[in-house]
Specification:
It is a single chain. It is built from no helices and eleven strands. The strands form two sheets. Strands 2, 4, 5, 6, 9, 10 and 11 form a seven-stranded mixed sheet that branches. The chain is globular, with a radius of gyration of 13 Å. The protein starts with a strand and ends with a strand.
Length: 115
């Protein structure tokens, strides 16, 4: 059973928008941090945006002003609205979640920005 289920990736033209969704399963009882990373082939995972355990929201520099993270605590879900996408945003986007004991990764969703 997938503990984090992601959706919303795909192919979009430069300047376009996508919305990613991630929902935590019931097996993750209490989420205290949740957000998104991204990774290109051969590269490391970089933080895109996240709700931290402190309650603060953090964005990667490349995401500021273009991406917006929101959440629905009742659904244990987090969303990433990505606007004004460019080819450099092409990557696999991974949802993550933390509870008191564990760190979870989603399976990843491909985002491709190309004309």
């Amino acid at each position: 059973q997938e503990q984090l289920v992601e959706s919303g990736g795909g192919l979009v033209q430069p300047g376009g928008s996508l919305r990613l969704s991630c929902v935590a399963s019931e097996s993750i009882v209490s989420v205290n941090a949740m957000g998104w990373y991204r990774q290109v082939p051969g590269g490391q995972r970089n933080l895109v945006a996240a709700f931290l355990s402190s309650g603060n929201v953090h964005y990667g520099d490349f995401a500021k002003g273009r991406f917006t993270i929101t959440r629905d605590n009742a659904k244990k879900a987090v969303y990433l609205q990505m606007d004004n996408l460019n080819p450099e945003d092409t990557a696999v986007y991974y949802c993550y979640a933390k509870d008191n004991d564990n760190f979870y990764w989603g399976q990843g969703t491909q985002v491709t920005v190309s004309s």
